[in-house]
Specification:
The complex is a heterodimer of chains A (333) and B (255). Chain A is an alpha/beta fold. Chain A has ten helices and 13 strands. Chain A is globular and about 70 Å long. Classes of the chains: A alpha/beta (333), B alpha/beta (255).
Chain lengths: 333, 255
Amino acid sequence: MQLLDIRNLTLELETPDGIVRAVDRVNLTLREGEIRGLVGESGSGKSLIAKAIMGVLHQRWRISADRFSWCGEDLLRLPYQRQREIISRDIAMIYQEPSRSMDPTAPIGEQLAESIPDHRLEGVSWWQKGFFRRKRAINLLHKVGIRDHQAVLHSYPYQLSEGVCQKISIAMAIAKDPKLLIADEPTTALESTTQAQLFRLLASFNQLKGTSILLISHELETVAKNTDTVSVLYCGQLVEAGETAELLKNPRHPYTDALIRSVPEFQPDLGFKQQLYALHGSIPTLQHLPIGCRLGPRCPNARRECVKTPQLERQQNHFYSCHFPIHRGGTNE
Amino acid sequence: MSDLIEVRNLGKTYRKATGLFKHKEIRALQGVSFTLQAGETLAVVGETGSGKSTLAKLLVGIEQPDQGEILYAGNQINCSEYRKTNQFIRYIFQDAARSLNPNQKIAEILHAVLRYSTVLSAEQREQKISQTLRLLGLLNEHANYYPHMFSGGQLQRVALARALILDPKVLILDEALTALDPSLRAQIVNLLLDLQQKTGIAYLLITNQLRLVRHFADQTMVLHQGEVLEYGPTAQVFQQPKHDFSRKLIGSAQY
């Protein structure tokens, strides 16, 4: 079943220099039980999209979309109160820096107990609620792989390592059994051993409970290993989307191609200390976005037509928006 | 001696007061020895608290070692003599944006480095600056920019310029490539590889990204709680890790 279906999501911000369009007509769909990756560089709008789904964007942002449906209900057209109800029931998010997104003045136990929704404790008499809340909090910690719950429950966020904090924020997120878990760069601050642990944890929730996961990352290699489908963003435009394996094997957009070729891991025949493939130039700032295809100035095969924004084209389950997509042989149309 | 840097049995202990008279000793690093030749890259990997950054700080002289010695090209040099050592060995911080003074133009930042460590005249300094900027793919006009006017990848280049302007023999990169976006990272990696070929500079790469280590480093050292677990050619370390910990670390990167 289609869980999330977003069509032409546009996020605009009014600034003194005019309107900045940070996210430009992005499509995103998520089926139940799917793990989708969202890849893009800093400033490509991936976190904005996540916040738009959560409904926590600042009110200065103008959100518009042709369709923004969650389980068949269009969230943008619902009254605010109802929208909050649905989101808080079904969607949970893990933020980028776990130790900074927690309350520094309260011990973990309190914060965790607070995140357990009331309807989980229905049928419990009021004098027993505190006890059950606590029991459930300990249970959650065990679920995310923290064995020493006693020490953790009484510590403050600053006393714990980043990896443990990240696990706790996952515990908070799954406290309400969400249908969708948004993980916004969950592993940037972590070491590679802890990273592997976390991805195993996320994968196990996906398999046991059927939770869909939207995994946001700027590293293609971590996304490649842990997702079923992937969407690639560049400067707020969706450049390519499709099944992960197919997309990695057969990228159609020059940007995806460059991303894949810049990672030594995907290039088995790359010699030791050989030059990596890199696009020249750097990411444009939001105030100076090029018109049309935003990759234009950096694209190796840009032509005159690229000043027009390309339409999203579809080939089976593979979407790409480029006038001159790459074919397997490396030749252009 | 052909070794550019030789480190013998380096150790560092921090003392932490736990009471009025009591203190606890934390061994940040012990018994670390390695050699680094010109044109080579040594990667140091390990988890947080394994002493990676302590090692870097000892080498550049931010901290004093408690035991062991550091030899540059066969001579022992006291690390606190910055004026002598900083021409040899330079350090790049993790976050370029935060390690550059926002009040100074790039030219001023670079002039200050040269004024401190060389005897060049103002004219020669100008020349050196424009030469260095060009080497790193920046333009002469960039000298009059302030740090906030650059993008992330360019800032990393400026940080590199500040490090390379003294023509060092060794460059220490402390997680300098971690925070960059993938396409910029590829650019900087290319730049570093290019420089190594041209000038024979040696790198000490401190990082968590094992994929990069594999591509980049000649030698790899695995640190764990201040001790060296593995040290050898990269291919060998990756194929036959000896210790459980390094096996776990390397296994985690391959999934």
